[in-house]
Structure formats: structure tokens, C-alpha cells
């Protein structure tokens, strides 16, 4: 898998974390450097951990499903993409406002960790798909974590200016992320001669 594809996956997986960071930042009177560091580290850690766990699970099962590995990888990416599409349409109107006021001005580590798990579950399936196409996980996990940390930090820094616009366009961002994952899944099938 090429670095550009891994970067595309990382950006797609970071969209939910970015939206949460934007929404939280938008309702805060002040955003401190400690808030940015806290959000970035927690979201990045889970975004890097989940594909690693998925990869180990996939590696353990690989011998059982090696004849269909490309289909498993495609179906997992397809599942994540469909999940992103469904979430996009469940978000309601594009003009919907962020509903992060209930998180409080100094979010607890436990609550932040739960949000990080919820926004990184898709990465578990992506890690499983990496195992199916025999892609080592170290570099993708690092890229996914670093990209998530950077995008989360940028989202919080830009929260005051971009929060309303991001909330209005979160559906489009989710659909774009889903399209990236579907295209990568189709490329995996193409490389395995499914369309030949």
C-alpha cells in the first residue's frame, strides 16, 4: 500500500475526531494549549492503537481466510465507508449546530477516552484489512496517529472560525472519506485480478 493511500485513509479516519474537536472548541470561552495537547494525544493514541489491534486480529485469522483475503479487505473498507455514509445522513441537516455544550469546559480524561474510542472504531476494521493485504502495520499506524493529532490540533485552533462551517459540511466530509475508502478497496480487488 502506497503512502498516499495510507495518508488518505488517515485523513478519512480522522474526520470524526476533527468534528468533535471543532464542536468542543466552538463552545469554549477559551482554548488553552493544554486542551489542544490533551485532545490531540488522546485521539491520536486511539487512532494508532485501533488499526494495530485490528491488524493483529487479522494476522491471527489470515491462514483461515487467505484465499479470500482481498475480498475481506474490500468488504471491511466497504463496511467502514457505508458506516460513514450512514452517519452522514443521520447527522440531519447541513445547518445543524454542534451539540458539545454538555462536555464541559475541561473535559475529563475518561469522557475524552470514550469519545476517542467511539471515533476510532472504524480504524479497527481498517487495521484488519491491512492484515488481509499483508501490509505491515507500524508505518500506517504511526501515520494515522500523527495525521489525527495534527488535524485534531488544527481543528481546535480553528474552532472559533470554522466550527459553524465544519458543522454545515460534516456530511460532505464524511461522504468524501467514504469515497476514499471505497476507491482503495476497489484498487485492492483490481490488483488481485477480480476485474480481469
UniProtKB/TrEMBL annotation:
Subcellular location: Cell membrane
InterPro entries recorded: Mntp/YtaF, Put_MntP
Keyword set, alphabetical order: Cell membrane, Ion transport, Manganese, Membrane, Transmembrane, Transmembrane helix, Transport
One Pfam family matching this protein: Mntp
Ranges annotated as spanning the membrane: 6-27, 39-65, 71-89, 109-131, 137-161, 173-190
Keyword Transcription regulation: no
Record's bilayer topology term: Multi-pass membrane protein
Record-linked HAMAP family: MntP_pump
Protein's job: Probably functions as a manganese efflux pump.
Similarity annotation: Belongs to the MntP (TC 9.B.29) family.
Protein known as: Putative manganese efflux pump MntP
Gene for this chain: mntP
